[in-house]
Design a protein that fits this description.
It is a single chain. The chain is of the alpha/beta class. The chain folds into 2 domains: 142 residues, Aspartate Aminotransferase, domain 1 (Alpha-Beta Complex); 240 residues, 3-Layer(aba) Sandwich (Aspartate Aminotransferase, domain 2), CATH 3.40.640. Helix content is 41%, strand content 13%. The protein is built from 14 helices and 13 strands. The strands form 3 sheets. The chain has a 7-stranded mixed β-sheet, with helices on both faces. Strands 9-10-13-12 form a 4-stranded antiparallel β-sheet, with helices on one face. The protein starts with a helix and ends with a helix.
Length: 417
């Protein structure tokens, strides 16, 4: 059955206010199950790691279950392939040091101008430190899609690493990552995928993708401010870890330096439990297409498939609404026949108005959106809008409604008045 918005929205306590949250690409509202896990952790088992006493043992059990849950969410082959950290940016800066340690002067890497800066600058800095050349892949400014021909040329130089996004946090473009991974592996190149923007919107299967690394942040998928890295077991085993001496050499703790945000990790477990609930309640019609999964992994894929199906409807409504506003220019894909190639995240300019002014006027009407470059600095520079304030960004999540889209349209019409 399709998502029941009344039931879905009841799972998000913060939605019980007169506000419309279209700021989701910068961070979603938290699911009730995640909140409950945080509270339960802090009350029942708030302790440090590997103690001999009851609360520490219980704490470790929660953390272990969170690793297993994220392995199911990504469809990783083992919970040892899941690494928790502060956020995507910090984890990427950390792991980039370990990966780049094996680069040699004269080697090359590839980054793209479509990515969030957290999947660009860590690699550029590492390359500079190691004497490695950085090759840039551009995107088409007309439709916001990655130039795959340019990528193929860059991969022809046999780079050590390709850093690429699953979906653009600025333009909403979904990259053909499965094809991109194959292209890279044919060139002998490791692939590091930033899935932060994609994770709330559709199912992820790292084994099917065959990517080497993939990373997301739970506060973008209805959980807590924690980053989650997947890495192939053999790669994580072989990489040198920058850590203090008493820390374990075993995975996954090898890369989880210091005391982690335990209550935040418990909140991730709650977010995964929310997706599992969505799968059981609303995802059965998708089960026939997911016969290669089982258990919790199956329920998660069903839940994400149901969310994806509903968000296609939201995306179509947003595209139509924004496209009807006089003087509004959408950047990125605007072909309604290609909605499968984007998430429901749209960036735009409205007439000659500064993006901040538009965001402020929307906020006055209780509609929350972002303005600026959203850390996708290369995108705004490439589009020629960085110096004039970037763009306004509207991003839907599956708890948004068609009525909220209509309200956005009416308010933008009023602003253009």
């Amino acid at each position: 059955m399709p998502l029941d918005m009344n039931v879905i929205r009841q799972q998000f306590p913060s939605l019980d206010r007169p506000a419309i949250f279209f700021d989701n690409p910068g961070g979603t509202q938290i699911a009730r199950q995640s909140l409950e896990r945080i509270n339960r952790y802090l009350i029942e088992c708030n302790a440090n790691h590997e103690g001999a006493f009851a609360t520490s043992i219980a704490s470790d059990a929660v953390l272990d279950e969170a690793h297993r849950a994220m392995a199911d969410f990504y469809n990783a082959s083992s919970s040892d392939e899941i690494v928790f950290g502060n956020n995507m940016t910090t984890l990427t800066l950390h792991i980039s040091r370990s990966i780049s340690r094996e680069w040699n002067e004269g080697d090359e890497i590839v980054v793209t101008r479509l990515d969030h800066d957290a999947n660009v600058t860590p690699w550029v800095l590492a390359a500079r430190d190691r004497g490695v050349k950085v090759n840039w892949v551009d995107f088409d400014v007309e439709d916001g899609t990655l130039r795959l021909d340019d990528l193929q040329k860059a991969l022809g130089r046999k780079p050590r690493l390709l850093a690429v996004g699953y979906a653009s946090n600025s333009l909403g473009t979904i990259n053909p990552v499965e094809n991109i991974v194959k292209m890279a592996h044919d060139a002998g190149t490791l692939v590091y995928i930033d899935a932060v923007q994609y994770a709330p919107h559709g199912p992820i299967d790292v084994q099917k993708l065959d990517c080497d690394f993939l990373i997301s942040s739970a506060y973008k998928f209805f959980g807590t401010h924690v980053g989650i890295l997947y890495g192939k077991h053999d790669l994580l085993e072989s990489l040198f870890a920058y850590k203090v001496r008493p820390a374990t050499n075993k995975l996954p703790g090898k890369f989880e330096t210091g005391t982690q945000n335990h209550e935040g990790i418990a909140g991730i477990l709650g977010a995964i439990e929310y997706f599992e609930w969505v799968g059981k309640e609303f995802g059965n019609e998708h089960a026939k297409d997911l016969s290669n999964y089982e258990g919790r992994c199956l329920e998660l894929k069903k839940g994400m498939a149901a969310i994806h199906a509903y968000e296609l409807e939201l995306g179509r409504a947003l595209l139509s609404a924004l496209g009807s506003i006089p003087g509004l220019r959408i950047y990125g894909l605007t072909d309604e026949n290609r909605l499968q190639d984007r998430v429901a995240t749209f960036s735009f300019r409205l007439k000659d108005m500064h993006p901040r002014s538009v965001a402020e006027k929307l906020a006055q009407e209780g509609i929350y959106v972002w303005d600026g470059n959203y850390y996708a600095l290369n995108v705004s520079e490439r589009l020629g809008v960085e110096e004039s304030g970037g763009m306004v960004r509207v991003g839907a999540a599956h708890y948004n409604t068609l009525g909220e889209v209509e309200r956005l349209k009416e308010t933008l019409m009023k602003i253009t008045g």
